[in-house]
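Lab notebook: predicted structure, single chain.

Context: the supervisor wants predicted structures on file for every construct in the current expression panel, including those that have not yet been purified. This is the next one on the list. No modifications to the sequence; it matches the entry in the shared construct table.
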Amino acid sequence: MAPPQFCLIPFGSPAYGQALLLRQAILRAPLGLVLQPEELEREADCFHYGLWDEGQTLLGYGMAAPQTEEGVKIRQFLIHPDYQRRGLGAFLLQTMEERLQTQGYRQCSLHARLQSAGFYLKQGYIVTSAVFWEVTLPHVEMKKRLTAPPVADHKKTPPV
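Prediction complete. Output recorded below exactly as produced.
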């Protein structure tokens, strides 16, 4: 397998549509849930990232939703089950964090499904809440401080 290609996914693009299909199949359908139009409308101002193989198969996806001038919330993070346990999740998350740092972001937060919290702990996230229920599953809030040097230009434009 050739190295995966990381790229920004423009909101509303065909690649975004492909990501929605993968999100629905992996994250929502097993819970009996469906992505709703009002949920998707809130994603227009988010950063969407994909990890693709040489055949243009979407291997993984992650979204970063700006919360403050320096903080983003990682959402809808996934690696296709056929490609898990190969280091792709760590690669995707690390690359997302690096891109976000170049945009001036200094902290990532997320709501991790309890079964996935171990993955995020290995990536340097810490648990910052008690267990709570979200989309029918137990979750914990987790955070990570990004440690890049300050960026002079804090414009929050999507990385290229």
